Backbone:
């Protein structure tokens, strides 16, 4: 009783009396009253079902519209009703005649027989051969079981289709000495149990096993209508209400009990609530088994219990309750005076607000939370209760308890609300717990991660810190980069490096190793394990630092990276990353101030990769030239000289000729300069180089080697020696001899050139001038003979032309010029002297006006004339022939014959006379020079 008194009371139901519906005139408001004599009732399928003992044993149906209907089910009385909840099947027990002869009738409410429900089955309710009174009735919702309890302690079980006689089997399941007061089927999966309760014991039968084994659960029972089966919220437990306690049973054991004292009259289970009707303690007790024969003056208490949360949801006093029914989402209390009282449960929000307001005032937050959970309050509502509970505990100074409640609000309550309360250094451990949970639920942002890590570092809790960061990668619930930054800032470098390596934050790993820990070897090893792209980018970024501290190891890694790179520890076979080679030229800046390593790197690249970028060869050449220029040891200097020259001769500098030449000139690398001049066909530069160094023999050698390719070298050599005040007669004679043989300069120009040399006497050029004059004399004689021949030929041709014009032509040919046969008429004669048979002429001639014999020669002449006409405008070609010909005068004469110069003198459409004058002056100058050479 003490436990009962400690349960808090609420009013979660509204009580009203059912009123009659308004009539046609709108009148109404009177209490609805059932016919007198109602003895049994049930509910389901949208109706309240009643059975009476006064009005011809009728069964009444009361729908929600309160329009009563009935039909006569028995002749004398109705004693029991059972309405199935999932089927429109009603099972009744009643009597058609006096005496103990109860009948069971099964009604199908969906089918009609003369306006009444169809009775599908009738059979007597007699256990064995001895008639006895039926005490209780229950039916399984699958329609395969029906159990009937009797006052003599027997239980009859009907198995099969209960709606038909032919498909069911009836047998006595239980026999005893005490009246059966309650029955209930329990279905769990495929297992079916039947609870049987008498006034003295409780038993459980397993109906899904052959022979129906049973188990006695307890040695005390209850009165009629004082047992019920709970819903799944209480695990379908069988509830038995005794006068001292209420017991709950599983099929194989007894469960919890509740000390609700008082004589129980009616027990029902409704939506998670236990409904108990008991005698008011102010009235006299009654017999348990005859509880339904109460006096009209009795007062009865109806209590609605919430067993989970241990409170009374409703309590009220009624006058002589017949039964309590559940339908249409409400409880209906039927009293002996025929009235119906409805208990309407308040909506969830209203109940919760009422409960919370009272519980919060009394600081009963735990009960408020349990109530909210039992009524399936949404997460937002629960979170608000947790928040208020947390605020209450926080204000009381219970920070540990408060943080536990705030943790339960994660996901609903803004974290900043909690964080602000616990930023004090003395409460940092509470804040840490909250932030840990926030991360576990993957609801933390970068700021929360920063704050949590700062909390760990402030608390110096290395174990928690390690536990937090060393979670598996699939369980990471924080921003890794933020964590690395915070740990680095706090000086936890090893933890930061661990995170960076584990989560492949390569840049952070290297930055911490190089800038904070200064572990250059480890950083280099780490880069060697990275994929190619990552290794390449990081070597470009950190290569200079690594080269400064670990030059040899860095150089070796760069060699591998630029040739055949594979990550260290990679088990893939060689060649798997073929084609993934870094551009060695891009790493040259890494070797700043490390010329020795740079040279080793570049030489390695040129050895293993002949197709290395041009920049590699350029840098290597510059490096070798620098070493050569600064080397003091003669042997080493000679070796470096050979290496530099060998590199130049490798053929890798054709595309960067100018750059290589500049490098050699900067370092005064003479052999290299001369080699490049030679490769670039810069013969004049070679000669000028020797001239500057006054190497006379080298000047002559250059002229001899390259004079055929560039004739002006001899002219320049002559001019060079002519300007020398030294005695250079030997070299001048050699040059003059070659000029004479090749006819490279006019004699006058040679004399003018040598006139500047004070040491050169006439004897130097005497032989040259004599030979030149003799050649010119012979050439003049040949030209005069040719002129005379041309004059004679011209005179002869003119005479023939005059004869043809003035004298008749006599054709005396006797043979055809084609077939050489005797000439016969008709014949064809030409002025050239050829004659033909007419038929021969017609067969071989291509034109009527041309001689077939002379035509090929004539055409050649005509083609030459046309070609000359076409070439009259080819100024560039004329210039080229003039420069390349040994006899410039003949070239000029040829173009005079073509009329080139006539056209030049006839140009009138130039914008100014200056341009034409310039062209003519340039042309005449060229003619003069080449004419002098030819003479």
Residues:
């Amino acid at each position: 009783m003490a436990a009962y008194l400690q349960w808090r009371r609420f009013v979660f139901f509204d009580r009203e009396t059912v009123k009659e519906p308004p009539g046609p005139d709108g009148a109404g408001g009177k209490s609805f009253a059932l016919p007198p004599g109602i003895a049994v009732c049930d509910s389901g399928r949208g109706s309240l079902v009643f059975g009476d003992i006064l009005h011809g044993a009728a069964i009444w149906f009361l729908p929600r519209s309160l329009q009563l209907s009935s039909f006569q089910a028995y002749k004398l009385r109705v004693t029991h009703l059972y309405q199935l909840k999932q089927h429109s099947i009603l099972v009744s027990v009643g009597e058609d005649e006096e005496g103990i002869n109860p009948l069971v009738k099964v009604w199908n409410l969906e089918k009609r027989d003369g306006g009444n429900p169809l009775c599908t089955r009738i059979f007597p309710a007699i256990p064995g051969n001895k008639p006895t009174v039926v005490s209780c009735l229950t039916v399984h919702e699958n329609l395969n079981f029906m159990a009937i309890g009797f006052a003599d302690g027997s239980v009859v079980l009907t198995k099969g289709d209960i709606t038909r006689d032919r498909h069911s089997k009836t047998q006595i399941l239980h026999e005893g000495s005490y009246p059966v007061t309650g029955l209930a089927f329990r279905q769990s999966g495929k297992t079916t149990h039947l609870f049987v309760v008498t006034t003295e014991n409780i038993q459980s039968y397993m109906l899904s096993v052959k022979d129906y084994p049973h188990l006695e659960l307890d040695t005390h029972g209850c009165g009629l209508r004082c047992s019920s089966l709970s819903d799944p919220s209480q695990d379908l437990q069988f509830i038995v209400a005794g006068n001292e306690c209420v017991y709950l049973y599983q099929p194989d054991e007894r469960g919890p009990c509740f000390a609700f004292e008082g004589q129980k009259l009616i027990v029902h289970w409704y939506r998670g609530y236990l409904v108990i009707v008991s005698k008011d303690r102010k009235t006299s007790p009654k017999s348990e088994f005859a509880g339904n024969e109460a006096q009209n003056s009795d007062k009865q208490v109806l209590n609605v219990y919430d067993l989970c949360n241990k409170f009374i949801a409703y309590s009220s006093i009624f006058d002589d309750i017949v039964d309590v029914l559940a339908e249409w989402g409400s409880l209906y209390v039927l009293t002996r005076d025929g009235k119906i009282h409805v208990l309407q449960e308040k909506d969830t929000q209203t109940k919760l607000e009422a409960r919370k307001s009272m519980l919060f005032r009394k600081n009963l937050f735990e009960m408020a939370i349990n109530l909210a959970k039992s009524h399936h309050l949404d997460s937002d509502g629960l979170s608000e209760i947790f928040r208020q509970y947390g605020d209450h505990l926080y204000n009381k100074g219970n920070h540990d308890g408060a943080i536990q409640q705030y943790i339960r609000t994660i996901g609903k309550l803004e974290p900043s609300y909690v964080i602000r309360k616990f930023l004090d250094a003395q409460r940092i451990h509470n804040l840490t717990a909250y932030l840990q949970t926030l991360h576990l639920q993957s609801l933390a942002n970068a700021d929360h991660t920063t704050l949590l890590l700062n909390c760990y570092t402030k608390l110096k809790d290395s174990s928690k810190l390690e536990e937090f960061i060393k979670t598996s990668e699939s369980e990471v619930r924080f921003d890794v980069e933020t964590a690395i930054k915070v740990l680095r800032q706090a000086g936890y470098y090893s933890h930061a490096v661990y995170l960076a390596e584990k989560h492949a934050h390569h840049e952070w790993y290297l930055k911490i190793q190089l800038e904070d820990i200064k572990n250059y070897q480890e950083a280099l090893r780490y880069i060697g394990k990275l994929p190619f792209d990552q290794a390449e980018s990081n070597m470009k970024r950190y290569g200079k630092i690594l080269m400064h501290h670990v030059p040899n190891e860095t150089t070796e890694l760069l060699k591998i990276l630029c040739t055949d790179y594979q990550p260290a520890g990679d088990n893939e076979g060689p060649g798997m990353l073929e084609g993934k080679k870094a551009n060695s030229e891009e790493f040259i800046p890494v070797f700043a101030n490390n010329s020795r390593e740079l040279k080793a790197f570049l030489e390695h690249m040129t050895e293993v990769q002949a197709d290395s970028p041009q920049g590699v060869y350029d840098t290597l050449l510059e490096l070798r030239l620098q070493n050569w220029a600064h080397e003091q040891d003669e042997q080493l200097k000679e070796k470096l000289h050979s290496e530099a020259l060998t590199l130049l001769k490798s053929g890798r500098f054709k595309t960067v000729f100018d750059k290589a030449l500049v490098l050699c000139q900067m370092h005064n690398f003479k052999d290299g300069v001369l080699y490049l001049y030679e490769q670039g066909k810069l013969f004049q530069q070679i000669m000028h180089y020797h001239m500057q160094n006054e190497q006379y023999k080298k000047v002559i050698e250059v002229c001899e080697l390259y004079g055929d390719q560039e004739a002006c070298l001899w002219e320049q050599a002559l001019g060079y020696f002519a300007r020398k005040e030294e005695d250079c007669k030997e070299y001048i004679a050699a040059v003059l001899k070659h000029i004479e043989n090749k006819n490279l300069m006019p004699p006058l120009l040679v004399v003018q050139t040598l006139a500047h040399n004070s040491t050169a006497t006439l004897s130097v050029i005497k032989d040259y001038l004599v030979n030149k004059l003799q050649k010119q004399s012979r050439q003049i004689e040949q030209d005069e003979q040719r002129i005379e021949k041309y004059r004679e030929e011209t005179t002869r041709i003119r005479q023939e032309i005059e004869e043809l014009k003035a004298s008749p032509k006599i054709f005396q040919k006797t043979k055809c010029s084609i077939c050489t046969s005797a000439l016969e008429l008709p014949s064809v004669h030409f002025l050239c002297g050829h004659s033909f048979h007419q038929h021969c002429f017609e067969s071989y001639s291509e034109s009527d006006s041309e001689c077939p014999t002379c035509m090929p020669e004539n055409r050649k002449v005509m083609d030459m004339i046309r070609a000359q006409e076409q070439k009259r405008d080819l100024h560039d070609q004329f210039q080229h022939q003039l420069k390349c010909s040994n006899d410039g005068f003949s070239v000029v004469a040829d173009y005079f014959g073509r009329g080139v110069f006539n056209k030049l003198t006839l140009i009138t459409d130039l914008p100014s006379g200056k341009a034409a004058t310039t062209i003519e002056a340039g042309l005449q100058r060229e003619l003069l020079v080449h004419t002098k050479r030819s003479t």
User: Anything to note?
Assistant: Residues 283-297, 571-579, 903-935 have pLDDT under 50 and may be disordered. The two ends are 152 Å apart (CA to CA). DSSP finds 32 helices and 31 strands in the chain. The longest helix spans residues 762-806.
